[in-house]
Amino acid sequence: MIRVQDEVVPRAHRRQLLRLGFLGLAGLAVTEMAAVFAPFFRVTRIAGLGAQVTVPEPKSAILARFAASNDEPILYSQWRFFLIHAPGGIAAAYRKCTHLGCAVPFNKSEDQFHCVCHQSIYEKRTALLTSGPAPHGLDLFRIREEGDHLVVDTNPLNLLVREDNKWHDEHLEVQG
Description:
Strand content: 15-25%
Largest sheet: 7 strands, antiparallel
Order of helices and strands: HEHEEEEEEEEEE
Helix content: 10-25%
Distance between the termini: 108 Å
Mean pLDDT: 87
CATH superfamily of the largest domain: Rieske [2Fe-2S] iron-sulphur domain
Oligomer: single chain
CATH class of the largest domain: Mainly Beta
Radius of gyration: 28 Å
């Protein structure tokens, strides 16, 4: 004997199943794209810039470090600059690459600044561009002496921009 069911269960048709699968995959793809690109839309907070920073070491200790290390630049990562032993004194080079804004490290084995993002290379004593796609050398922060300590103005609006990619005596604000 054949039993008749009282309830009819609707079956998913092939087109409906394909449509749901496609919409599900499209939704997953949109979600993944949003997750990948979301960090690029977030405004990056620039911490450690804009203040008058007193370098913790006295000028005499900085000059001694330069003498002991073959003029290797001294990195102050919290304030995003290097102290460099420029011809005739001390300068503060902004660590931001002038090409696309990458943080430029000093490469000890090459004895020069080398931006690993796009291969711009800067000279260690002047931070001037020697090769690569950057338009000019690293920008310089203004620097002054107060007693035996150095004070660096880390305000990006007061930079010494060297668009001619040459070292001039007026770039040197601290003798030594």
